[in-house]
């Protein structure tokens, strides 16, 4: 088979999709794909992982070559639900199975500097940044960008980990030394005084079809996503512009499957990309009930080479994350008649991921609050008293 023909295989329902990773993203992918008639097998080291509860699971470490080989044998197509896939495993899977997403996008998005260069090459702006190899280089960049600045490790950071917001010159040495211990390259960025954080999820099929979901307005608490509000409370032209940028990135980077694009909207109405994730994204969970096609169905469609689904928004929605500390009060609410929801005319749709231990700050689920408008959904969230922030 030629490379092109191989890259454009159509995987029909009835086939088995293998997922590297068995967390909540894999679980929701498997739920959406099972409804279409696909079978799923996930590779994850935690027995009875969220995805293992709704699909078959191979219990083994992600970098276990024998387990990866078994996954390749059992699946007709392989995808992943997290981006830190071991490069050796990715290469082996590509040799032994069909991995339409390839490994290049993973390679790019595993490293902040490579990612920023790729975004710029696609003609989209990122916050001014510099690679720093020494405290002196950091000092030089700080004087160029002004304070505050954000120092980040190039690899391995998530939910604000591996970051230092430098607020004064006196912090430069300590910030450099602390993050330099991670043993990876460092990048410093200008601090963007954003009015809002937004995200857009784009999907691209191997045939090159691209569709974007409506932009979400995201609110973080302690660096963890708290709310996604859709439609984002920005004007329609900016919403379209955010979607155009995401489509340009999906095209420029040759993505297959989903790519989530996180953006800063500045006070002056400029959009800068913060970072990318080549997978379903927490800020796209709202699509499960609020769009004609969910991000998970779209991902399955894209990696299987099916035509992409309609991404239209069916209703305004606010997604609120359920962390460990929210589980108990949420379960108490679930069992009761929800007078507040009835009075406000909202429909809270509860999603829990089946994780065994509800540790504080751990993502355990989310609620998609469908409403006439964002204010009513936000009023419900506030009235429950579950999310006191
Ligand atoms: P990240 O891990 O890069 O997504 O960063 C986590 C959060 O830190 C972002 O969602 C922002 O709220 C904040 N942040 C990161 N980089 C910057 C920046 N250059 N300027 C302002 N805030 C930032």
Automatic annotation (TrEMBL):
InterPro entries in UniProt: ATP-grasp, ATP-grasp_carboxylate-amine, ATP_grasp_subdomain_1, PreATP-grasp_dom_sf, PurK, PurK_C, PurT/PurK_preATP-grasp, Rudment_hybrid_motif
Binding site for ATP: 112, 152, 157-163, 189-192, 197, 220, 274-275
Keywords (A to Z) from UniProt: ATP-binding, Ligase, Nucleotide-binding, Purine biosynthesis
Molecular-function GO terms, alphabetical: 5-(carboxyamino)imidazole ribonucleotide synthase activity; ATP binding; metal ion binding; phosphoribosylaminoimidazole carboxylase activity
PROSITE patterns given in the database record: ATP_GRASP
Enzyme class, broadest EC rank: ligase
Record flagged with keyword Chloroplast: no
All copies of domain ATP-grasp, residue ranges: 116-304
CC annotations in GO: cytosol
EC number from the UniProt entry: 6.3.4.18
A biological-process GO annotation: 'de novo' IMP biosynthetic process
Assembly and interaction partners: Homodimer.
Family: Belongs to the PurK/PurT family.
Function: Catalyzes the ATP-dependent conversion of 5-aminoimidazole ribonucleotide (AIR) and HCO(3)- to N5-carboxyaminoimidazole ribonucleotide (N5-CAIR). Catalyzes the ATP-dependent conversion of 5-aminoimidazole ribonucleotide (AIR) and HCO(3)(-) to N5-carboxyaminoimidazole ribonucleotide (N5-CAIR).
Full protein name: N5-carboxyaminoimidazole ribonucleotide synthase
Organism (species): Paenibacillus sacheonensis
């Amino acid at each position: 088979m030629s490379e092109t023909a191989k890259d454009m295989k159509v995987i029909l329902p009835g086939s088995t999709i293998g997922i590297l990773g068995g967390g909540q993203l894999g679980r929701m992918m498997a739920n959406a794909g099972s409804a279409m008639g696909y079978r799923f097998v996930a590779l994850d080291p935690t027995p009875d992982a969220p995805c293992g509860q709704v699909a078959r699971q191979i219990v083994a470490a992600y970098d276990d070559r024998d387990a990866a080989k078994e996954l390749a044998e059992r699946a007709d197509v392989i995808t992943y639900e997290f981006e830190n896939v071991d490069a050796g495993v990715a290469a082996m899977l590509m040799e032994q199975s069909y991995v339409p997403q390839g490994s290049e996008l993973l390679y790019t998005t595993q490293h902040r500097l490579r990612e920023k260069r790729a975004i710029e090459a696609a003609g989209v702006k990122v916050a001014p940044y510099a690679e720093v190899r020494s405290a002196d280089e950091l000092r030089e960049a700080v004087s160029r960008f002004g304070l505050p600045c954000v120092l980040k490790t190039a690899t391995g950071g998530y939910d604000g980990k591996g970051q230092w917001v430098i607020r004064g010159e006196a912090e430069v040495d300590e910030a450099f030394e602390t993050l330099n211990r991670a043993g990876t390259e460092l990048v410093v960025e200008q601090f963007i005084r954003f009015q809002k954080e937004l995200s857009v999820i784009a999907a691209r099929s191997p045939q090159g079809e691209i569709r974007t979901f409506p932009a979400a307005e995201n609110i973080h608490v302690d660096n963890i996503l708290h709310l996604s509000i859709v439609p984002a409370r920005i004007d329609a032209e900016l919403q379209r512009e955010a979607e155009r940028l995401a489509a340009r990135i999906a095209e420029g980077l040759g993505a297959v499957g989903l790519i989530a694009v996180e953006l800063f909207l500045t006070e002056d109405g400029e959009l800068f990309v913060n970072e990318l994730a080549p997978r379903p994204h927490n800020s796209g969970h709202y699509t499960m009930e609020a769009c004609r096609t969910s991000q998970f169905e779209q991902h399955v469609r894209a990696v299987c080479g099916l035509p992409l689904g309609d991404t239209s928004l069916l209703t305004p929605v606010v997604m609120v994350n359920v962390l460990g500390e929210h589980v108990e009060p949420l379960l108490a609410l679930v069992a009761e008649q929800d007078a507040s929801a009835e009075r406000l005319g909202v429909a809270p749709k509860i999603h829990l991921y089946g994780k065994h231990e509800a540790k504080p700050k751990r993502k355990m689920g989310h609620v998609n609050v469908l409403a006439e408008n964002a204010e009513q959904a936000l009023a419900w969230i506030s009235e429950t008293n579950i999310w006191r922030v």
